[in-house]
């Protein structure tokens, strides 16, 4: 029997799935009330909680009803396993949905996909490191939450928000992402917060492509990938160019781990990469032990990086702390540094020659430095299995989660420089 809870449902509608008292919300238990997660989700109304008992579930779950909470009773014990037979573990196409406290693994594309794109939700395209949705108009899914999720050994992205706005990705762990652990793409303004996550043993820890405006990446541990973090412009997606992200208070270290999937562009040993992104703020990050460079600014073939500010970061033990390089005719402008703890830049003395603020018309100098050849990668299916991760508090007794229409956005001034121990208790790769 469904557990009935009387209260106010969230979201924006939902289909008629049976008669119940007005304003009632229920907890639908798997397998007690429905034999599969998909069957339970199909029964849910806005405001309901689908609570999943421990077990391995071989299904791809589609959440198309607004305001539903999908939650595992045990983060490590509830496993949605694609067995490399399906593109996605969980696909969210309705607003106000929360996905919490479970593990998704072994999908050919994504562990969790949150999207307003019908083409992306269908699972194709996506085989070449992203979604080129052709002539499909940009349609945003508005409001989502992904929290306390473990996403490992997925063939594209662990947690992927594409053509989505007004969301939060938090307290999650990603590894074995053949492209990246966490990815936010094609949103403007995003109003998305990525916070307090661990991304390790991925090709890239976090990637933001054409993700612009109120895009916050704060307090994350991006350690032991091939590349820690990128923010970039890419013609494969709409809403060019990438602009206006805040990347603050992250630990970005030791990103030259060999037992990882190869990065598509061959990058290796880079903490932060900016490729044609503009007006981004890199504030109070701890960037350490990245063998090629701590932070690299470059251009796409035709999109310059303009007005990026590198402020109050701490750089230690990188091949080069900050390097600007423009191998094509496209050159950066107005990029600047202020108040960083650093030891080496290319070109030399950037802290003196390019101090913040600078006019957007000010040309950015460029240089080159020796870069190591990336070693071969491993299949994403061979990446090390993660250890136990923190549980969602009171998963079995807390009701559905109300997802706000717009999340509270961080105050950049309140984000501190992280300690070297940030979230280390739940990581496999250490910084030294």
TrEMBL record:
Name of the protein in question: Periplasmic copper-binding protein NosD beta helix domain-containing protein
SUPFAM superfamilies: Pectin lyase-like
Domain Periplasmic copper-binding protein NosD beta helix: from-to ranges: 152-322
Superkingdom assignment: Bacteria
Record SMART domains: PbH1 (SM00710)
InterPro entries associated with the record: NosD_dom, PbH1, Pectin_lyas_fold, Pectin_lyase_fold/virulence
A Pfam family annotated for this UniProt entry: NosD
